[in-house]
Design a protein that fits this description.
Elements (H helix, E strand, L loop, with lengths): L1 H17 L7 H7 L2 H17 L3 H18 L17 E10 L7 H11 L3 E5 L3 H7 L8 E5 L7 E5 L3 E7 L8 E7 L4 E6 L8 H19 L5 E6 L7 H10 L2 E2 L22 E5 L4 E7 L10 E8 L10
Parallel strand pairs: 1-2, 7-8
Antiparallel strand pairs: 1-12, 2-4, 3-4, 5-6, 6-7, 8-10, 9-10, 11-12
């Protein structure tokens, strides 16, 4: 038992360290995604070694806990949390992000979610022709829409109850993985929204494509100014160095900050779940709440985000 525990702790220490080298190799980046799991396992091992008075191993367990806890602090420290009373210059906007899973046929479950949550704007991913047809039933509530259905996992779409302008289909040089950018007229200023779904880094080539798409998305959004949002399954976690680069280079911030980990994938195996579905916002926006939605038959849980977005009457952005 003790030798197994020592081997497991040594593995956790190596994986925790490998996560810092994610820019060098995709398997190292993969190691960066599971820091909550490393922390919990190390905490259990700390109890084992402390009970057996094996102080060196207990100290190593504490080190693994400390390293991973440091990276998890973002979920507890708010960056742009809204005041409880909305400013008259800030517009409430409810966003819904849902990776529908292209093999999922539970169309009624998603329709029920939309009815329960009443979002203003929806970003849907893995939109197949069958899903596009199912979404036509939402036409009365969401008259503005841009759907790009694809066979397979990379169809995408935006549905809005407000008018959309300057809608553009992008691919960042990788046509198999489309994105959509649009300006949404909220009634009190326009909101720039980029919906993106880069591929999972399951091979060296897809790792390169995902990283390139994240880099180009950051460049695109950096100059967009206030009222800017990025929504999507980005196939990376908040602890990846590439996610850190995206945040730094785009000038956006994670809407999750201060609201917990909110893991979204894989919904079919909760012990391994990590947050890879993201909402990034410009720093003038404030977050009222973020939560995961119920199971809709997908391998992802949906994400529901309530924002207060700066209107045109608010001339001074609040720095964070």
């Amino acid at each position: 038992m003790t030798s197994t525990a020592k081997l497991l702790l040594a593995g956790l220490a190596l994986l925790s360290a490998a996560g810092f080298l994610g820019e060098l190799y995709r398997l190292f980046e993969l190691a960066s995604h599971f820091r909550p799991q490393y922390l919990l396992l190390a905490a259990l091992l700390l109890v084992v070694f402390a009970a057996r008075r094996e102080l060196r191993w207990a100290a190593l367990a504490m080190g693994v806990i400390a390293v991973n806890a440091h990276h998890l602090m973002f979920s507890a420290v708010p960056d742009a949390v809204a005041a409880s009373v909305a400013s008259p210059h800030r517009v409430p906007v409810r966003l819904l992000l849902a990776n529908l899973q292209y093999t999922n046929g539970a169309h009624a479950e998603f329709t029920r979610l939309v009815g329960d949550e009443q979002p203003d704007v929806i970003v849907v991913e893995e939109v197949t022709p069958a899903w596009a047809e199912a979404l036509t039933g939402l036409g009365e509530r969401f008259p503005a829409r841009k759907l790009v259905p694809r066979e397979g996992a990379f169809g995408i779409g935006i549905l809005s109850r407000w008018p959309m302008h300057d809608v553009e289909l992008l691919d960042f040089g990788h046509p198999d993985y489309p994105a959509i950018i649009a300006r949404i007229a909220t009634g009190s200023g326009r909101l720039t929204l980029l919906a993106a779904h880069p591929p999972p880094p399951i091979s060296d080539s897809l790792y390169a494509v995902r990283n390139d798409q994240l880099r180009q998305a950051a460049e695109l959004l950096r100059g967009r100014g206030p009222r800017t949002v990025l929504l999507g399954d980005l196939n990376t976690s908040p602890w990846s160095p590439f996610f850190a680069k995206l945040v730094q280079q785009s000038g956006l911030t994670s809407a999750r900050a201060g609201f917990g980990l909110l893991p979204t994938w894989p919904s079919f195996f909760p012990p391994a779940m990590i947050p890879i579905d993201h909402c990034l916002i410009s720093r003038d926006a404030r977050v009222r709440s973020v939560k995961t939605g119920p199971d809709i038959g997908s391998d992802h849980l949906p994400l529901v985000i309530d924002l207060l977005v700066q209107g045109p009457g608010c001339c001074t952005a609040v720095s964070a």
